[in-house]
Amino acid sequence: MELTIPDVKVALGMRPPNWRQILLAFPSVDEKKGVYFAWDGTIFSPSGVQPPVDVIVHESIHFGQQDGDPAGWWDKYIEDRAFRLEEEVEAYRGQLWYIREVYGRKTARKARQDIAKVLSGPLYRLPLTKAQALNLLT
Ligand SMILES: [Zn+2]
Question: 2 C-alpha to center of ligand 1: Å?
Fold first, then answer.
């Protein structure tokens, strides 16, 4: 299988244009390390941490979902929990696919556990258990 790493811009130490809107909805993301924001072809990393390639794959899926309207996508993402879950499941599945292809099944199994924990954790504010998240990521 062929892997194409998308050509994206990474804005290290910078906040996305809708930072205030994001902070109001997700207060826990403030300067947190390893949290990234997709905005129309640019990955913002407010903490300044370089995103690993599997995260670039994840954020690139969000670029496709935004389809040239990042502001509209973010509005819906913040207001609509079901939509947020759908978009994240798609992005995380792509990320896991990449991890499996590049690092193998063992690493992907571990990553799936870690991702299920994050997806069902406080960050995304979704009514989801880790077991439910694991099922969605299978
Ligand atoms: Zn995401």
Answer: 23
Each residue's pLDDT tens digit, 21-78? 999 999 888 868 889 999 999 999 999 999 999 999 999 999 999 999 999 999 999 9
Phi, psi of 82 (to 5 degrees): -65, -40
**1 within a domain of the structure (yes/no):** no
In-domain check, residue 109: yes
Centre of ligand 1 to C-alpha 9, Å, is 16
Residue 58's domain spans which residues?
Answer: 9-136
Domain annotation covers residue 4: no
CB neighbour list of residue 109: distance below 8 Å, 6 or more residues apart:
none
